[in-house]
Amino acid sequence: MTMNQPIKKLSKSRYMKGMFCPKSLWLQTHMPQTASGPAVSQRMSEQGHHVGYYAQRQFATGILIKDSETPMPDAIEKTRNALIEHRYPLFEAVITTDDKIVLPDILIPNDDDSWNLIEVKSSTKLKPEHLDDIAYQFYVLTQAGIKLDECYLWVINSDCVWPDEQSLFKRINVTREILAKQANIETNSQHLLDYVELKDEPNHARGTYCKKGPCEFLDYCWDGEVGMTIYEIPNISDSKLLLLQQAGIAYISEITNFSEFTALQQQFFEMYNTNGRHIDGAAIADKLAALTYPLYFFDFEAELPAIPLVDGMKPYQKLPFQYSCHILHQDGKLDHQEFLHQDKSDPRRKIAEALINDLGSTGHIIVYNEVFEKGVLQNLSLLFPDLKAALDLIIDRLWDLMEIFKTDYKDFKFGGSYSIKNILPVLVPKLTYDSLEIQKGDQAQLVWQQLINSEDSQEQKLLEAALLAYCKLDTLAMVEIYRRLLERFFQGCIQ
Fold it and tell me: Where does the pLDDT of residue 257 fall: very low under 50, low under 70, confident under 90, or very high at 90 and above?
């Protein structure tokens, strides 16, 4: 292909993308039309901006340089003047060299002519990639002639009790680690700058990292696959993948020696090679027989905000705002109950009272991944002592449908996973999320935030309908999977 536009400066995000996968950086530069999804979810992006806002609030004074309304040339000039004045903390300053650009979260002026660099993250702990992120910023800032003294990483303090903003962040001095990484920054950045200058699309090896991104070029790079690749082997190590790649093996069907794989992986290969399954029908039948009707198929939707929405909560503490419950009776009759909180008030009391009413006093409550639902219910039980007895009885009635797929029912078509999103298309292909506005939990969280902040009644109705449809399908999916198991392994459970 022929390049017909200048190469963009190497920003921090582009540097990090290139270090993760240089081909994704090349595609972003030359073939952006091949992207099929966002690199970072809107939910994660908005949360990052929200956390950054509260970091800026930690300072009595400060200058916001670059916001969504400020043209880049104006932000560069504003940064230059603020650096010369050297008086106030700078938020989102724009620092450039000939081929690089960074927008550090916060720069703090010291008493001499130096600055301290602060990078703000919405995670609760330091991660290796955070150091690479800050190291690149440090390099560009110093190349631009800015004297830096210390570097800090601010992460969310999970022990903070809202609204105590002063304890919201843990401040980690990472200066020593950042200095130790400087030797490799020039080599890495020059390699990436050379890489994006390539005229022809590079042939870059794919790997498990492709699906850890998330990467917006995943569909493009993996288009045309006609079989399961080695990257879909459950729990395969990077070292084992490298050996397979060096042997020229790309597909599971090309593997001939299985002896050095784990027992789990060998079981997966056996199912794959026989187009088969590993099913313990007797164990499944015994577990189904132990269930007591009516059966309540139950699912929460909960917000896990970095910045708590309710006083007294901690960062990332689960805040339930919705549930769906399908009730299956012994005679096969199916009822449905649901709850959706629709304003900014604390939803927990209302949702606790509603589910106590809807879940009755007898019959198993079937969930998918009991740890999540149980955690939400336990928090509600601790919060409302007068409801504790009723909520504890509900907890005692929980039954995890996922356990069957963890231990008794495995199919190579599940791709080594027991996520309900992997199992549903195999067992109940007629039931799909494809036509819904919401298809994942993080999308539901984002839509709920839009709902409670909207002042447009028409928009509110559309958002409400989308949330209810998504959560309802989650529990209907459990019902249909359960019915499928009954048909195969326990005929006669329903009269």
Answer: confident
CA distance 230 to 250: 6
pLDDT recorded at residue 4: 45
Tokens linked to 400: 């995890």
- Mean pLDDT (the chain) is 91
Do residues 151 and 116 lie in contact, with contact meaning Cβ atoms separated by under 8 Å? yes
The domain ranges of the chain are 10-196, 225-275, 283-489
User: How many C-beta atoms lie closer than 10 Å to residue 323's C-beta?
Assistant: 25
10-196 sits in which CATH class?
alpha beta
Which residues are within 8 A (CB) of 473 and not within 5 positions of it... i.e. 6 or more apart? 431, 433, 436
Backbone torsions φ then ψ of 62, nearest 5 degrees:
170, 155
Question: Residue 474 is which amino acid?
Answer: D
Query: Is residue 375 scored above 90 in pLDDT?
Result: yes
pTM: 0.86
What is the rounded CA–CA span in Å between residue 462 and residue 439?
15
Contact 119, 51 (CB under 8 A): no
pLDDT of residue 233: 82
Instruction: Yes or no: say if 476 and 447 are a contact pair by the CB < 8 Å rule.
Output: no
What does CATH list as the number for 283-489?
Answer: 3.30.420.10
Q: Which helix (H) or strand (E) holds 383?
A: helix 370-383
Model confidence pLDDT, tens digit, residues 440-487: 888 999 999 999 999 999 999 999 999 999 999 999 999 999 999 999
302 and 283 in contact (C-beta within 8 Å)?
no
What is the torsion angle, in degrees rounded to the nearest 10, for the CA atoms of residue 319, residue 324, residue 329 and residue 333? Answer: 170
Which strands sit side by side in the sheet containing 115-120, from one edge to the other?
63-64, 90-91, 106-109, 115-120, 148-156, 169-173
Question: For residue 134, which phi and psi values (nearest 5 degrees)?
Answer: -70, -35
65-84 residues labelled b (16+ CB within 10 A) or e (exposed)? bbeeeeeeeebbebbeebbe
Helix (H, G, I), strand (E, B) or coil at 246: helix
- Please classify residue 317 by burial: count the beta carbons closer than 10 Å to its beta carbon, then call 0-12 exposed, 13-18 middle and 19+ buried: buried
* Secondary structure (3-state) at 149: strand
Task: Judge contact between 141 and 175, C-beta under 8 A.
Answer: no
Which one-letter DSSP state was computed for residue 254? G
> Whose CA is closest to 129, among 237, 23, 21, 238?
21
CB 17 within 8 A of CB 24: yes
CA distance 128 to 471: 36
| Interatomic CA distance for residues 323 and 299, integer angstroms | 5
Strand partners, 262: none
- The backbone torsions φ and ψ at residue 327, rounded to the nearest 5 degrees and listed phi first, read -110, 115
Asked whether the predicted pLDDT for residue 219 surpasses 80, the reply is yes
Give the distance, in angstroms, between the CA of residue 293 and the centroid of all CA atoms in the same chain. Answer: 36
Prior bond to 202 cis, omega within 30?
A: no
